Amino acid sequence: MEYIEGKTLRQWMKENPMPDINAVTEITNNIIQGLRVFHRMEMLHRDLKPENIMLGGNSPENYDIKIIDFGSVKIAGVQEISTPVERIDLLGTKNYTAPEYLLGSEGSNRSDIFSLGVIVYEMLTGELPYGDKLSRELNWRTINKIKYNSAIEHNPMIPLWLDGALEKAVKIDYRSRYDTFSEFFYDLTHPNASFMKHSAPLMESNPILLWKIIAGVLFAANVGWAVYFFS
In which domain, by residue range, is 229 found? Predict the structure, then answer.
């Protein structure tokens, strides 16, 4: 068994509870490179979570990222000896698992995109996009009632367009998610006007969130002023 030096992404998240967005996108890009290798080989990881991602190196720009724990990997053409749901129950990772697996359906590359989206959301907010709702007993009727929690509610400094990218990546219906990692990553790093255009004014849709954002901006401005004044 290979010894992998470094820390898990979970450890990194504990050490960096409010990370820089650029650091998060650097780590995300490195994770995507590893997942692309899986998908080119017609394999799905299916148990992607912070504990299964190892970071070597000392900064996001030069992390050597390795994806570990292949116990739930699906290889195209290989018959399974147990169902994904049985393994997920055993591993206790429902909150990172694509809903289609929880309902006993087959997965696809969009299932791994869902898991990655949850991880990116958690890196930026310290929370999960659906709370603990995916860890409960679900069926087709109840799962469609689960609502996405805006990342901005937990971190007001997240841009609206980035929140839109996260929301699309973790859509309950896999058909509404990104089809490729490259599309997801592009929207994480480039403002997508469609996420702004279709959003209702915050004062109407979520006035509490609006005031949180205003408070966050004012706090950042005051900190910047204090640093400038006393330097």
Answer: 200-231
